[in-house]
Every structure is written in structure tokens, then in C-alpha cells.
Amino acid sequence: MCIRTNGSRERGIRGDVPYMKKSNHSNQPVRGRWLDVEEVRLVSDLRIMHSKVDELYQVVNNLKRRHSESDIHKYADQPVLSEDIAHVDEIYLWFVSLKEDNGNKKAM
Predict the structure, then answer these.
(1) Is residue 3 part of a domain?
(2) Which end of the chain is more exposed for a tag (fewer CB within 10 A), N or C?
(3) Residues forming beta bridges with residue 12, ordered by sequence position
(4) Residue 23: closest CA among 6, 35, 11
(5) pTM of the model
(6) Looking at the structure, do residues 55 and 78 belong to the same domain, yes or no?
(7) What b/e string do you get for 14-25 counting C-beta neighbours within 10 Å, with b at 16 or more?
(8) 47 in any annotated domain
(9) What is the domain range of residue 41?
(10) How many Cα atoms occupy the beta-carbon half-sphere of 30 within 13 Å?
(11) Total tally of structural domains belonging to the chain
């Protein structure tokens, strides 16, 4: 399991790999220098995330286009669907916080 700084345990994108330590280069521009191993891992994880988000978006759009909501509820495993919805809500809130953080940084 991953250990957060407050002591709670949480799984990372890579499973049971600890959260990435803060890079020594975090305040330096990326252009004109090599990325360290942790930065390459971050870029790799981001690319995987982009791919999976796009995949989920396509699957959901196909479900919405091909099937009615009532049929989706009729045939879905309701506990699993509820868990999926909770996961997507959690992801959405994380994206909103990233968006807000980025907006705050631009305003500075």
C-alpha cells in the first residue's frame, strides 16, 4: 500500500508503489534538461491516465447512444454500478481540484 504524509494508506496508479517523492527539479523548467526517473514515471502515468479517460469516455458515449437509461439500470449489477458511479464522482472531484489549482496558479 502507499502511505500518504498524514499516515493514511492509499493505492497509487501503479498499485502498491509508494507515492512519488518530490523531484529535486520541481521548481526548474523542464525544457533544456533531462527528466529524472520519477519525472519519467509521472509522464508515463499521465499518458496512461489520458488513454484510460478517453477509453471510458468512448464506452460511456456508446452506452448512452445504444441503450436507454432504464435498460442500463435493468441489466446492470446495481452494487457494481453504484461503486462505479462513486469512483467516477471521486475522479471528477480530483479533476475539479486540479482545474482550480491551475486557475489559481495562472491568477498569481
Answers:
(1) no
(2) C
(3) 15
(4) 35
(5) 0.68
(6) no
(7) eeeeeebeeeee
(8) yes
(9) 34-66
(10) 6
(11) 2
